[in-house]
Amino acid sequence: MEPTATPSPSMAPDNEKTAFCETCDRTCERFADAALRGEGVAVGYGDRLIIEPMDVAVPVGEVTAIIGPNGCGKSTLLKALSRTMPLAAGAVYLDGRAIAEMPTAEVARKMALLPQAPEAPGGLTVGELVALGRYPHQRGFGRLSTRDREIIAWALAITHLDDFSGRALDALSGGQRQRAWIAMALAQDTDLILLDEPTTYLDMAHQLEVLELLRSLNEEQGKTIALVIHELNLAARFADWMIALKDGSIRGAGTPEEVMTPAMLREVFGLDALIEPDPWTGRPSLVSYRLAR
Amino acid sequence: MTETLRRHRGAAMIALLALAAALALWADINAGYRSISLDELGQIARGTAPASLAYTLVELRLPRVLTTLLVGAGLSLAGCLLQGVSRNDMADPGVLGINAGAGLFVAAFIVFVPAGLVPSTVALPLLAFAGSAAVAAAGWRLSVVRGASSPRRLLLIGVALATGLSSATSLLMLSLPDGDYAFVQNWIAGNIWGATWENIPILAVGLGVLTALALYQARTLDVLGLGTAAATGLGANVPRATAALTAVAVGASGLCCAVGGGLTFVGLVCPHVARRLVGPSFRVLVPASVLVGATLMLIADIVSRTLLAPNEIPVGIVAAVIGAPYFLYLLARS
After folding, report:
1. Alpha-carbon distance A289 to A233, whole Å?
2. Is the predicted ipTM greater than 0.95, yes or no?
3. How far apart are CA B151 and CA B174, in angstroms?
């Protein structure tokens, strides 16, 4: 099957670098009012670019899923947006302000980051880890204030870890540990939370548990969330906005219905995909797939 | 609540360690050919003690014991900070090449500067400190790639520098007469040779300030322990905090090296012991490491001065002999 056989707006041959998604550009409200916005963002080592110059946005108040095959640069993009990796070009704006010009602690009061497979020192307890989320709000020797304690207690409660506060992190299961890290990010008390593969290494039930937690944080606490994720069905089920990357450039951005298409999966993953609406959620769902020939 | 319970546990553990350090201090003051009772201590304090007794305590025993205590505390502080900043359990001042740098400067002084030209009691501490600082700076400079240093690279470069500098030191020492050779060899093994009343205030104030700085940065150390990405996400300036805390560690180990010689192992083992006792939170780990370091060195000093009395074993060797089995036990268990 020739790619041109299934015309789709996202498959426009001249992949315009300034386009935000296939239907609009920088003037789009979703882009202009985005919680986090990258303009002409590029990342590279030496001469080699891992992320080609791109416009990218995390729409405010929504859950954004970044998808793409291994090595497509999706984690790198999240790192670039979260200032944990230097940019080769472009700029990132947080609530409309250039992140590079903001003190790093101020950024941390607005945006929390959960890196991929984070590791804590042996013996650290859940309570101690979550308390570190208050770091950007503390000064001096940093005794925890009443407000700090309230927020820590809230973060533990909402992640159902109240009873685990005194437990060592390395004694927990994978799912509990991931919830503890999310609780730490929540204790940062930010409107925006970025997560790099929060469901990797978890079984299906625990993946769902983490994503339902994120969804409820979005719906009930108004958090804007962006995550890198491998599981396409879960991405389509929980995200409002999806960004598909391949070879360091955006191949599609839009609602799950716009991005989870056979044409997109063929272009991005090289898959022949059968996609149907999920009978329970109505979201596009990958029923079966094979390698495209 | 578990959290308050844990805080109380930490405080209780610190109190116990302080008590252990105090007991070790008293035992070390009493170790040797003449023990001193509490009564006699009171007499000395009131100035009614026989002159010879006062001399033994004030001029011979105390400087040695206090210097030992401070050196142990300082090296353990340095190791605690380096292990925290690098997230590497094998980090210690020796691994950074700091001791080797000091050793080279000391050997060069003995070889190239004619005896009696400069009093060695003044020159050696300064040279040792300069050697430590020079190697630390060179290691840091070499570890900077694309504008950023990484603790991992710093440690690898430190290992290479230490090996190279130790070989250079051995080469220099070949030309030394037996007496001088023994002196340098003893220095490298670590024997608290700079134990004088002049050095103690410098050491005490210097290490006091550095410990206070480390405590002030305790939360930052905790955050750095989560890895570069998570620490950055929490709003820590990772490169600046790493550089500053490494500098504190180099300062502490440089001071200790200047009066204590090339003591290794104390800085490696003591923070591990402290972590076992109080956990990884630096607010309690820093004071605990300082106390464990002081205690271990005092115990090593007792053994070093009594085991083969009247001969002395370099205290660094004793500390390693005491510390190594425990460290192997830790490694075998994990």
Report:
1. 12
2. no
3. 34
